[in-house]
Amino acid sequence: MQYDLTDLRLFVAIAEARNLTRGAERSHLAPSSASHRIRLLEEVIGTPLLIRQARGVGLTRAGEALLRHARQVFAQLEQMHADLAPFATGVRGHVSLWANTHATHSFLPDDLAEFLRAHPQVSVTLEERTSPEIVLAVARGEVEVGVVAERVEGADVELLPYRADRLVLIAPPAHPLARLGVTAFADVLDHPFVMLHAGSAIHTFTMNTAAALGRHLDVRIQVRSFEAVCRMVAAGVGLGLVPRSAVSGGLAAPTVIELAEPWAQRDLQVCIRARDNLSGFAQALVERLLASAPPSATVPAQGQEAAQAPIKGQRG
């Protein structure tokens, strides 16, 4: 297909204005030139994009699809410019890091701040993804470094011990479950929950875990941070599922209840393809993450050997 970014920008401008003349003005084109470009674009794509009306224009189904994709294209271009901009200001390196919700909201902020202070010439792009997505992306070479809490069967990656933590159930202090020391996840699914926002890795994990039991969570409210989950739970809105490290003490803190399931142990691990293949800055980031973990955060010796070896056919 032969069209360029000018054509796409023009189409977006017209679609958003619902008017060809105003869209042409936004694109600094004459209406006749804009109309000609849109006709050529429709010919190249092979279907009408606009519905010409007495007052303005509407979008065909194809036009709606093109508008959605064109917006994504320009969003990606803006992200590309943002990623490239640091190089013009003296930054000489860049590392892409994907991490699950747990790591992103707990340990990584302090560790990355320390790394960036020690390496002012480096920039880091941090994206929150689920552990399986991260492992597969690292295995395919799409991202150099990940932080995960799960293994993926058949993924040829190395997992290096980073931090140890557990998922725990939290309840309002006056909740009937608050007197329990330990419970099974299946036994609390009749109660309403406070959850992180849809799309977060821990939201996906929790919903899938409930679905595997043939149940659906009653999500009372969704928030943007573990701190907000804890505060909502302490206020009596519902139960929550958070890492133990996210629960702070104090009079207004929720009650912590241990989960009996083995999956509640969520040891975080740094995920890479192979140390020898890392760029210099990615290697420095990995070393910083591993060095920042306290001795108690490493996995037991029996699991450590398996964690440092490539994963083949294992799932945790």
Tell me what you see in this structure:
By secondary structure, the chain is an alpha/beta fold. It has three domains: 5-87, Orthogonal Bundle (Arc Repressor Mutant, subunit A), CATH 1.10.10; 90-162 and 268-308, Periplasmic binding protein-like II (D-Maltodextrin-Binding Protein, domain 2), CATH 3.40.190.10; 167-264, D-Maltodextrin-Binding Protein, domain 2. It has eleven helices and 13 strands. It has helices at 5-17, 20-26, 31-45, 61-88, 101-105, 108-118, 131-140, 201-212, 226-234, 280-292, 301-308, and strands at residues 50-52, 57-59, 93-99, 122-128, 145-148, 158-163, 167-171, 182-183, 192-196, 218-223, 239-243, 255-259, 268-272. Helix 1 packs across helix 2 and helix 2 (20-26) crosses helix 3 (31-45). The two termini are 46 Å apart. Residues 297-316 have low confidence and may be disordered.
- Quote the distance from N terminus to C terminus: 46 Å
Number of domains: 3
| CATH homologous superfamily title of the largest domain | Periplasmic binding protein-like II
Number of DSSP strands?
A: 13
CATH topology of the largest domain: D-Maltodextrin-Binding Protein, domain 2
Relevant terms:
alpha/beta; Arc Repressor Mutant, subunit A; D-Maltodextrin-Binding Protein, domain 2; 3 domains; five-stranded mixed sheet; 11 helices; 41% helix; globular; disordered C terminus
